Amino acid sequence: QVQLAESGGGLVLPGGSLRLSCVASGHTFSSYGLGWFRQAPGKEREVVAAISWSNTDRYYSHAVKGRFTISKDDRKKTVYLDMNSLRPEATAVYYCAEQRRASTTLSTDYYNWGRGTQVTVSS
Questions:
Q1: How far is 119 from 18, CA to CA, in rounded Å?
Q2: Closest by alpha carbon to 114, among 31, 38, 18?
Q3: pLDDT tens readout for residues 22-62
């Protein structure tokens, strides 16, 4: 079974940038793609971005479109989330998970969640 591990979180000033990584261990992917979610204290988990393994589909939430970029490196089995112009409201634990099917932003359509990485945007 594939295991996912996030890294790259930390403390950053407003307006700053971070690159998150999601490394997959294992040999095969039966999923459609991979998504990044975030969950802030007291709030529901929300999708941030998603990418298909074929690289033909990418999704960004309205809140991050134009500032975040999702990409992947098949050789390294890694999916990245480049976050620019970070705002304090981006503070959350960021998770990656495998996407069960195309064109979905429902957390119930994602599985095999990583343990998350904390991102804090604060001055």
A1: 9
A2: 38
A3: 999 876 568 899 999 999 999 999 999 999 989 899 999 99
